[in-house]
Amino acid sequence: MHIPSDLSGATGTNRTRTALRHISADDDLAAITAWLARYADVPGTVTAYRKEAERLLLWTVIQHGKALSSLTHEDLLVYQRFLADPQPAWRWVMTTRKKPGRASPDWRPFAGALSPASVRHALTILNAMFAWLVDAGYLAGNPLSLARRRGVARKPAVTRYLTHTWWEVVKTTIESLPADTAREQLHAARCRWLFTVLYLTGLRATEIASTPMGAVFWRRDTAGVERWWIEVHGKGNRTRLVPATDELIAELARYRRAHGLAPSPYQGERRPLLLPLIGHEKPLSRGSIHQIVKEVFALAADRLRVRGAEWHAQADQLASASAHWLRHTAGSHMTDQQIDLRFVRDNLGHASLATTSVYLHAEDDARHEATQTRHRLGWN
């Protein structure tokens, strides 16, 4: 990105005028890069934060004609309304369903208007960025710190998940994928395995992309029962054990056989958990995983639409779903089956385990049994 010198922020009106600074950045782009560098070991966070910082920087330079370090609170109110309706659309919004590469002339910063929840999320990220730039001594003040705050905190509610009806339609869609050619057979097998992992484990897309087959292993519990687990390195570089139920292990064997592999992974196997259609070594990117999920959701939405006009609104919602919806779906459906909330929390990695938990094998085994018994996918 090349920014004109008068909009680079080198002389921004909100720049700190004192010599006390904790970063060496002399312009806005360098300052944002320094902020993003703090999250270099968390790729998913870097991607999300960079996207919001980039959108703001592009808007303020190209459309608003100001340096980012000159923005006022009023400017950011204008930007907040812009997020809800990025205009002119020809400049800001992509016209294709498939995301083109950044080098493509069809690339745009937005796929469409952001929902109110997405706007709030974007501003939360930007508020954190501005606050850090103030703490770093780069900015004199945070223009978002004046944002109106709600007097009463709302109880958070997860709304982005698949209902049981939608989930059945998604399963039927996957089971009906074409399998006339060898490539179609591998693609259908990959979709089935991907959705199996997302639903039965609640893993994030980034975790699936970074987990090798060798992370699936078994150990005997105190009663001598063989139990399978997946060792996952998750958000914040924290490691957790996720139950690999008998159903999931059977699906893994089915998936591996489709690729001509032995049914069970071996210790230390570096093949990715989700295999490419050609070759077995290179893992799919987080974006590729999202694209596969989106394509399946689009097909499932079409199935809903043919049921009649009364299903069109639900079909539109399903078509807008992403891979992360399946993580919420896994958690929601686990609680629907009355699995202990502590087990759900540990399965999804919402909280780090206490240091002494490495000794609590009996509790781990109870979590495995509860997950395996009550949280099932049920392929036909």
TrEMBL record:
Species this chain originates from: Paraburkholderia pallida
Protein name (database record): Integrase
Entry keyword Protease: no
Cellular compartments annotated: Cytoplasm
S-adenosyl-L-methionine found in the keyword field: no
Gene3D superfamilies in the cross-refs: 1.10.150.130, Intergrase catalytic core (1.10.443.10)
Chief localization: cytoplasm
InterPro entries (UniProt xref): CB, DNA_brk_join_enz, Integrase-like_cat_sf, Integrase_catalytic, Integrase_recombinase_N, Tyrosine_recombinase_XerCD
Matches recorded under PANTHER family: PHAGE INTEGRASE-RELATED, TYROSINE RECOMBINASE XERC
UniProt keyword annotations, A-Z: Cell cycle, Cell division, Chromosome partition, Cytoplasm, DNA integration, DNA recombination, DNA-binding, Plasmid
Biological process annotations from GO: cell division; chromosome segregation; DNA integration; DNA recombination
Tyr recombinase domain sequence ranges: 157-374
Molecular-function GO term, any one: DNA binding
